[in-house]
Design brief:
880 residues, alpha+beta, 8-stranded mixed β-sheet, 26 helices, 29 strands
């Protein structure tokens, strides 16, 4: 799954849960896992959806193995109504009708029989009915406009724990089973499942019965169904039929995704050492949005919201194109890491998501080197460190007890820190050894369930290098190592370097640091020779070839912060312009984070921004633009100081934007196209009057001049107009949005209505979000967009309209959405508000997002108080 942020003879039969290993982080607390005494082996499901009534009826026959006689069988179920349940033994022997009791809070249904069900194989048959939702959970409906009127399509979303809303089941990743699925649908509509259709029968009366081929063993959360007026295009890749499915008329927009998928599949087959095992793999695009995810790795039937899969020349950017590619690569990687081999429980979710995040980058580097994608890994690592440096963080492998906690586990620690740790360990053992270990892991566990230590064991065996202890340090405990660097005098062509390990923490600066074994690489600036060591016991040293400034974490594979002694940092600053782009990103990122934390001058990063050469990599300039706009946001309550800083920031970015220009040049590199949009957004945010005026001019000219708003710049221009809108411009954007039929364009227009800097217009956007006008799934996005500039307003509004807002949010996001709106606040009063909201509305074990918001607000207040005086003095000096 990509979050806003994934048949063989070797198939493992259901068995008692494996003995816990260190990676499981077992605790004395009890999880919501079902007992292992009864396990499913096969589901035979038949159902009939009623899209108009938003209901469905169904019957399921579940083959089960009973380990010991029992009068009760408990499985997971939510929002289901049971009509009948009975059990049959081997050969169809009658076992009796069950009494059904439902525990809505625990999301379980218990079937009780008059006589004990004997040990052995049985069939549990259940007739039931359920709801079709309007947010992305369980079986859900998405409405969209067409020239022929409104249409409705159906899809399913089951990760992490929503298959129970569609089928009473053992809805946990450990319980793998095969599936036969049969559905009665309106004749002429396309039905989609994990497997190809094996039979279609016309029932008359406008109905048809569609039967899908039997699936391989898989977890419940990977089951998929879709239904609607769709188009499908295919391409053969070896024995696999690769497909893209869109609403009618949109196939051309999926062409890039389809063409990209074939080479990725062939490479993954080789990399993982096990060929993709299903006969088809569809990429399915759906209108709408979710606050929880953008794509989902259902086996053989990957679901995407349209913005994550479709490329529309009227509005899509180069960044969109790259995001489409990496999202496709991410979800396809899950077909092995997650689908073929699945974590036993949500504790090890990172085995799915960290690996898919790492593999998407590897695919982009292999097939699109022109994107310079390895630099993006630094940004991902920085995002993870932003979370990992607060006390509300958690280990990569974490103990999960409840459905809510499983939902909250889909975060930057699981994804981006997981990816960063993999990159570090891969660099430590070598690319080939790492790949061989992954191949061993996949082959050994195909169609089974695993825990993290199963992976470390196979990598160690392949590499012949012990990594488990290092891996445990970075996955079983939270936090970020801090490596302090002291470089000695060069002698005989060697520079000695002393390394000390501490811990980088933003809200517990005096805490006793945790201990890590840290792989560290270093090189003299400009040298090709890299020295490596493992810092253990808090100390380490290196002898680096060459004389000159030493760059620690050269190549940026390590997951740690680097703090240079002042003299050493002065040398790094002097050589900054000559460093490889990836090290420029690493150095400036560390300097900025350490500066905000008071561990070095906060203006050191700003000095690096000034020292950056005009021809620096576009992603380096993107980082600089991000730092400057970040500082700008700190000046919310100091308009005079903000004006002085803006003058300096605009002067720094404007020459680069002028060099890039408003108009794309023939053959320009993809990163330059991304930089154009980034700088346009940054300068608009900084209040550059020239950029804002030109964006408004182009927007006004769009109706008569087809060149005024080129597709790749449409989003950036709309963002500038929306952010700086007055009442008349806001009304014009809304008037443009109301009749728009293309969801990608329509959603962008409504999102920009919510991005207004003017508080009065932001309040209008909040009111609009709770009407039917934007569409059922866009409302939450509008509220969260308002929160980017007006977090206090958005939070207060959401609390005041709690029930209406929660109705617009998918089930997996409800414990996260409202408290998460406040995280951008710098008002001390907001801490009490968030705490009070959590206490009144969230179970004690489901307050992780509220805790993160409180930590973020507290840190922001502290940081602004400490950093702004230094930055203001620096800006005055530079301006003078």
């Amino acid at each position: 799954m990509l979050v806003l942020a994934a048949g063989s003879a070797l198939a493992a039969t259901a068995a008692p849960a494996p003995a816990p290993t260190k990676s499981a982080i077992t605790a004395a607390t009890v999880t919501t896992q079902l007992p292992r005494g009864v396990v499913p082996t096969h589901y035979d499901l038949a159902f009939t959806p009623d899209a108009d009534a938003l209901t469905f009826t169904a019957s399921v026959r579940i083959d089960i193995d009973v380990a010991a006689p029992t009068r009760t069988i408990t499985l997971q179920a939510a929002d289901l109504t049971f009509a009948k349940a009975e059990i049959a033994g081997p050969g169809g022997a009658k076992g009796g009708v069950a009494k059904v009791s439902v525990d809505a809070e625990a999301q379980t249904a218990t079937f009780t029989f008059d006589k004990p069900v004997a040990k052995g194989a049985h069939v549990l048959a259940i007739d039931y009915s359920g709801k079709i939702y309007k947010q992305a959970a369980g079986l859900f409906a998405l409405d969209y406009d067409t020239d022929q009127g409104k249409k409705r399509a159906l899809y399913t979303q089951f990760e992490n724990s929503d298959a129970r809303r569609f089928i009473p089941s053992w809805d946990e990743p450990f319980f793998k089973a095969t599936y036969d699925v049969q559905v009665t649908v309106p004749t002429g509509q396309m039905a989609i499942g994990n497997m190809p259709i094996s039979k279609t029968q016309d029932l008359g009366g406008g109905k048809s019965k569609v039967t899908f081929a039997t699936s391989p063993k898989m977890s419940t959360y990977l089951l998929f169904f879709g239904l609607g007026d769709f188009d499908r295009a295919t391409a053969k890749v070896g024995d696999v039929e690769m497909g893209v499915i869109t609403k009618k008329g949109d196939l051309a927009k999926a062409d890039f995704a389809l063409k990209s998928s074939g080479p990725i599949l062939q490479w993954y087959n080789d990399y993982f050492g096990v060929p993709y095992p299903l006969p088809k793999l569809d990429h399915i695009a759906a209108p709408g949005q979710s606050q929880f995810f953008s794509a989902m790795e259902n086996w053989g039937a990957i679901f995407y919201f349209e913005y994550a899969l479709l490329e529309d020349p009227a509005i899509s950017t180069q960044a969109d194109r790259q995001n489409i590619y990496t999202t496709v690569a991410h979800e396809m990687a899950h077909q092995w890491f997650g689908d073929l081999v699945t974590m036993s429980w949500w504790d090890d979710l990172w085995l799915n998501e960290g690996f898919a995040s790492w593999m998407e980058g590897r695919a982009a580097e292999r097939f699109h080197p022109e994107w310079n994608s390895q630099l993006s890994a630094v940004g991902g690592r920085e995002y993870a460190m932003g979370l990992d440096s607060l006390s509300t963080t958690h280990p990569v492998v974490q103990h999960v007890e409840t459905v809510d906690q499983a939902s909250q586990a889909f975060d930057g620690i699981t994804y981006q820190k997981g990816e960063a740790v993999i990159r570090m360990l891969e660099a430590y053992v070598g690319h080939e050894a790492w790949r061989d270990g992954v191949r061993r892991y996949i082959k050994a566990n195909a169609h089974g369930s695993t825990q993290t230590d199963d992976l470390w064991r196979e990598v160690e065996a392949a590499a012949g290098t012990p990594i488990t202890a290092i891996a445990h340090d970075f996955t079983l405990q939270p936090g970020i190592p801090l490596i302090t660097v002291e470089a000695g005098a060069c002698a005989a062509g060697k520079t000695p370097v002393a390394l000390t390990q501490g811990e980088f923490s933003r809200d517990k600066p005096g805490k006793t640091p945790l201990a890590w074994r840290v792989p560290v690489s270093a090189q003299v600036a400009g040298s090709s020779s890299v020295s490596k060591t493992l810092v253990e016991g808090g100390k380490g040293s290196l002898s680096v070839d060459g004389c000159g400034p030493v760059i620690v974490n050269a190549g940026q594979a390590g997951y740690f912060r680097t703090l240079y002694a002042p003299k050493a940092f002065a040398g790094v600053t002097a050589s900054f312009a000559k460093l490889p782009a990836i090290d420029q990103l690493g150095v400036i990122s560390d300097a900025w984070a350490l500066g905000l934390n008071g561990q070095q001058a906060v203006t050191d990063a700003l000095d690096l921004a000034v020292a950056a050469p005009a021809d620096a990599d576009p992603q380096v300039w993107g980082k600089i633009a991000g730092i400057l706009t970040n500082v700008d946001a700190m000046y919310d309550s100091a308009p005079a100081d903000r004006a002085a800083f803006r003058k300096l920031a605009i002067a720094r970015l404007s020459p680069v934007f002028q060099q890039v220009g408003w108009t794309a040049k023939a053959g320009e590199p993809a990163p330059v196209a991304n930089l154009r949009a980034t700088l346009l957004g940054a300068l608009s945010t900084l209040g550059d009057p020239a950029v804002i005026a030109e964006a408004k001019r182009r927007y006004a000219a769009d109706k008569t001049d087809p060149t005024a708003v080129p597709g790749p710049l449409r989003k950036a221009i709309l963002a500038s107009v929306g952010r700086n809108a007055d009442a008349a411009a806001w009304d014009a954007l809304r008037a443009q949005a109301q009749p728009e039929k293309t969801p990608l364009i329509r959603d962008e227009l409504y999102s920009q209505l919510a991005a207004a800097r003017d508080p009065a217009l932001a309040a209008k956007a909040l009111d609009l979000a709770l009407t039917d006008e934007p569409g059922e799934t866009l409302s939450a996005n509008m509220i969260s967009t308002v929160a980017k500039l007006h977090p206090d307003m958005a939070f207060d509004f959401a609390v005041a309209h709690k029930d209406a807002v929660n109705a617009k949010v998918d089930a997996a996001s409800r414990t996260k959405f409202i408290p998460g709106l406040a995280k951008g606040s710098a008002d001390p009063a907001m801490i009490g508000k968030v705490t009070a909201y959590a206490a009144a509305n969230l179970p004690a074990g489901s307050r992780g997002e509220a805790d993160k918001s409180v930590a973020s607000i507290t840190d922001r207040i502290k940081t602004r108080k400490a950093a702004l005086p230094q930055i203001t003095a620096w800006a005055a000096k530079k301006g003078g």
